[in-house]
Design a protein that fits this description.
152 residues; mainly alpha; 6 helices; 77% helix; 0% strand; elongated; membrane; DUF4199 domain-containing protein; transmembrane helix
Length: 152
């Protein structure tokens, strides 16, 4: 299982970094609204990790699928946050100041606030998407045998 979520977590992070660098190349990296595509990248990667794990298991359990989704998203969040920290502290030190000026924030938490925001948004996205996809992948209890044991 570690192999599945670590592999997909790294691939999600690579896709997020490539998307950010593509935006940088085009000159649109200053617009935080475009980071909503990160949710699509997270979603695709988490769904594929969970689907891959589910096809390899005969008895797919909810908690194991949840673990795969959550950990693959968590690994991607940490790796992408590390990349952004290196980018903001070493490569483009004016990037965080530009975003903070766009948001008209009057306190100077600067780069650290952006890095923490990236990490928290990554974890929150991972949790929400994992819960959502588990509803698609879990086995249904709505069988004829299960319906016999319900209150009518």
């Amino acid at each position: 299982m570690f192999k599945v979520y670590s592999r997909y977590g790294v691939w999600i992070a690579i896709a997020l970094i490539a998307y950010f660098l593509l935006l940088k190349l085009i000159g649109l990296h200053q617009y935080p609204e475009l980071s909503s595509v990160n949710g699509l990248i997270f979603g695709f990667g988490i769904y594929m990790a969970m689907k891959n794990y589910a096809t390899g298991e005969n008895n797919f359990k909810y908690e194991k699928g949840f673990e795969v989704g959550l950990f693959s998203g968590g690994i991607a969040s940490i790796l992408f946050t590390l990349f952004m920290a290196i980018y903001m502290y070493q490569i483009d030190t004016e990037f965080s100041a530009g975003i903070m000026d766009r948001w008209n924030l009057e306190y100077s938490m600067g780069t650290l606030m952006l890095i923490l925001s990236i990490l928290i948004m990554g974890f929150a996205t991972s949790i929400v998407l994992t819960l959502t996809f588990m509803q698609l992948l879990k086995k249904s209890w709505n069988t004829q045998d299960g319906n016999r044991h319900t209150i009518k």
